[in-house]
């Protein structure tokens, strides 16, 4: 009798668990938020479930989705950084949100705020990953438009300030006969420095990618008192991704400023050699000063501290070598493979 009761209870329990599973399946099938589930126990972690909202968002049918790895949604605008972050989350079995550019079946792109995480069985073994998608393209576009407007207003004001300063210098020089040459040099240097900042920092938040040589030449030409006779650029043609334009621009600005104040560019015979090469998607940049005053290790971090912060913020590394005959700075940061 006890065996019969136990068998019946087991049957009822199995039936109830099956019913609960069906209820759960129907619930996530009809939920309005796009959702998919993948199976890491299978080769290439394929999608084993996707709801109707996922298909509506991506434009793919259920048959076109099931059995494929989620990377089929990636495309030309998907950044290496976002892909690396996804790998970290999956490897670490984290619960996290990663913004990534994905593509619909019709080729249109959208910014996907992808929340993903692991699903474990009662014994703690990883059995599935879930991913919920949220299209934040409109929100990000509005943020970029607002940032671009603020940038344009700021740069307009800065240009006005530079122009006013140039006029003040010219007007002041009238009271000092014989100062025309100095006036022209100072005014020219002021306008050149302004142009270096405006050209390299950009006017909006959606800048086109820029060549490293273009940025370096603009900055050094402005800062070097004797222009191109005080610097040499040596490296392959390299177009920087948008995410690296501002960090490298700021780094070169700080190095050039330091060189003018204390280093090679403060002496007529001083010069800067800037070289770079790409190794497996990693930029190796070397700033070498020669011919300036004897170098001493600074007692406190000023510009070097700013540079360390900038490099660290993009996951790079930097080494300062305060040699007596000239500062050397080695910078490494990921920039992706060149097309």
Automatic annotation (TrEMBL):
<dbReference type="InterPro" id="IPR000700">
    <property type="entry name" value="PAS-assoc_C"/>
</dbReference>
<feature type="domain" description="PAS">
    <location>
        <begin position="20"/>
        <end position="93"/>
    </location>
</feature>
<keyword id="KW-0418">Kinase</keyword>
<keyword id="KW-0843">Virulence</keyword>
<keyword id="KW-0067">ATP-binding</keyword>
<keyword id="KW-0675">Receptor</keyword>
<protein>
    <recommendedName>
        <fullName>histidine kinase</fullName>
        <ecNumber>2.7.13.3</ecNumber>
    </recommendedName>
</protein>
<dbReference type="InterPro" id="IPR011102">
    <property type="entry name" value="Sig_transdc_His_kinase_HWE"/>
</dbReference>
<dbReference type="InterPro" id="IPR035965">
    <property type="entry name" value="PAS-like_dom_sf"/>
</dbReference>
<dbReference type="Pfam" id="PF13426">
    <property type="entry name" value="PAS_9"/>
</dbReference>
<dbReference type="GO" id="GO:0009881">
    <property type="term" value="F:photoreceptor activity"/>
</dbReference>
<keyword id="KW-0547">Nucleotide-binding</keyword>
<dbReference type="Pfam" id="PF07536">
    <property type="entry name" value="HWE_HK"/>
</dbReference>
<keyword id="KW-0288">FMN</keyword>
<feature type="domain" description="PAC">
    <location>
        <begin position="96"/>
        <end position="148"/>
    </location>
</feature>
<dbReference type="GO" id="GO:0004673">
    <property type="term" value="F:protein histidine kinase activity"/>
</dbReference>
<keyword id="KW-0808">Transferase</keyword>
<keyword id="KW-0716">Sensory transduction</keyword>
<dbReference type="InterPro" id="IPR000014">
    <property type="entry name" value="PAS"/>
</dbReference>
<keyword id="KW-0597">Phosphoprotein</keyword>
<keyword id="KW-0600">Photoreceptor protein</keyword>
<dbReference type="InterPro" id="IPR036890">
    <property type="entry name" value="HATPase_C_sf"/>
</dbReference>
<keyword id="KW-0157">Chromophore</keyword>
<keyword id="KW-0677">Repeat</keyword>
<keyword id="KW-0285">Flavoprotein</keyword>
<dbReference type="InterPro" id="IPR001610">
    <property type="entry name" value="PAC"/>
</dbReference>
<dbReference type="GO" id="GO:0005524">
    <property type="term" value="F:ATP binding"/>
</dbReference>
């Amino acid at each position: 009798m006890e065996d019969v009761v136990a068998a019946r209870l087991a049957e009822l329990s199995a039936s109830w668990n099956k019913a609960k599973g069906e209820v759960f399946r129907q619930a996530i099938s009809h939920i309005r938020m796009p959702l998919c589930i993948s199976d890491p126990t299978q080769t290439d972690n394929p999608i084993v479930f996707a709801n109707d909202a996922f298909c509506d968002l991506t434009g793919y049918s259920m048959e076109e989705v099931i059995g494929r790895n989620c990377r089929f949604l990636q495309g030309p605008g998907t950044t290496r950084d976002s892909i690396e972050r996804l790998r970290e989350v999956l490897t670490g079995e984290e619960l996290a949100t990663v913004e990534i550019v994905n593509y619909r079946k019709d080729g249109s792109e959208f910014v996907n705020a992808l929340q993903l995480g692991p699903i474990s069985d009662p014994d703690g073994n990883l059995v599935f990953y879930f991913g919920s998608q949220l299209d934040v393209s409109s929100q990000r576009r509005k943020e970029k438009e607002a940032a671009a407007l603020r940038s344009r207003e700021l740069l307009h004001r800065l240009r006005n300030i530079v122009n006013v300063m140039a006029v003040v210098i010219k007007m002041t020089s009238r009271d000092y006969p014989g100062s025309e040459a100095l006036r022209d040099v100072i005014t020219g240097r002021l306008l050149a420095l302004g142009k270096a900042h405006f050209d390299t920092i950009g006017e909006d938040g959606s800048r086109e990618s820029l060549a490293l040589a273009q940025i370096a030449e603009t900055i050094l030409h402005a800062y070097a008192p004797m222009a191109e006779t005080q610097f040499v650029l040596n490296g392959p043609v390299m177009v920087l991704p948008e995410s690296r334009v501002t960090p490298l621009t700021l780094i070169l600005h700080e190095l050039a400023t330091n060189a003018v104040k204390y280093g090679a560019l403060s002496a007529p015979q001083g010069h800067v050699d800037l070289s770079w090469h790409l190794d497996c998607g990693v930029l190796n940049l070397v700033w070498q000063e020669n011919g300036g005053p004897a170098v001493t290790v600074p007692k406190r971090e000023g510009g070097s501290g700013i540079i360390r912060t900038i490099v660290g913020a993009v996951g790079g590394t930097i080494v300062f070598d305060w040699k007596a005959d000239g500062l050397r700075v080695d910078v490494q940061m990921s920039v992706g493979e060149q097309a």
